[in-house]
Amino acid sequence: MDEFLERRVSNATVWSRRIAVFSAVLFLTAGLGHRIGFLSTPDFFPVLGTVAAFAILALLFAVRALFLFWHYGGKGGGSLLFAILVALLVLTPFGITAYRGVTLPLLNDVSTDTDDPPELAAAAAQRTDGMNRIEPFTPERRKLQHDNYPTATGRRYEAPIAQVAEVVQEVLDDRRWPIIGSADFPPDATEITIEAQARSPLLGLPADVAIRLIDEGTSTYVDMRSASRYGPHDFGDNAARIAFFLADLDVEVAYLTVVTPVEPAEPPKPEEPQPPVAQPPPEEPSEPLDRSEDPPD
Hints:
This protein is an alpha+beta fold. It has helices at residues 11-35, 41-72, 77-103, 121-126, 139-148, 161-175, 237-254; strands spanning 109-111, 155-157, 179-180, 191-199, 206-215, 220-228. It is 45% helix and 12% strand.
């Protein structure tokens, strides 16, 4: 009876697939739970570390499975490829974050006006222990921001401050950033600061923003500030948030400052011809008198 070895799937392949799928499910579940508020941000960070550790472990099992597959053959090549792709997909956000951490400056608070940044008064009152403190900008922080984010500047709009404030609140509503504090301001206010809470696109990490509007008479100047609530490094999130928000604000305010075309003036109406004035007939020249027949004196 001929003996033969049955080709089978290695245990390393099986565990690589299981761990990779588990890391992906944990990542999605934790991210959704953090988004809806079920998982707090301080508790979310350890879960992210666990997700990354499981994804790396899945890749290590995949390396072992590739070694066995290369030397001894076997089945399960499709499962092994699936495990590698899932693990790499899970690790992609961590890789991008690590790259930004190395290439971008160590900042967690960015403002378009570093000399006199908009105040985050309402946000400071809501921050608790474990969150970043809102601190004044130091000369080192100003230089670090100017060197790395030179385009983070304010905007001047040729529109009244009341109209610009309405547009700012509309953009905040579109982005679903809840306003912190009061959004009612007196109609004669010359300076308005609107505060709101924002979140990062992927992981939903919280940050506080402040938009300051200054009335300049015929125009309104807008400054913006964005400060992360957690972590010493924002990985470029605050500068990107300011850039995207102001770009949307540019588009919306443009509708207020479009120049209305001036209607052309009506052409002058032609003067109606006046009826000709009747001229008297010319007088016939009088003939000289013939005095040849007059009697002599």
